[in-house]
Design a protein that fits this description.
mainly alpha, single chain
Length: 80
Amino acid sequence: MNQNSTEAKKVILALKRVHEGEEPEEVLNENAQLGKSLQGYAPDLILKVYKWIWGQEDCNYPNGEGRNMSMNAIMEEIFR
């Protein structure tokens, strides 16, 4: 596994923590270097945006299906 794959998985695991209810700032404070070597959107932006997307999904699907559909798809893709 190359360095980018390892770093990407760390970002996804951080995203999972936000999915489970942790605040993005708390997750980011634990690992200030999270995803710094990756190209694309900054990890803090990804975590914060998904927090709000999942808040909307919680309103659209009150039983958690929407939030889980997106996170499950991400997990399946990255951990094949």
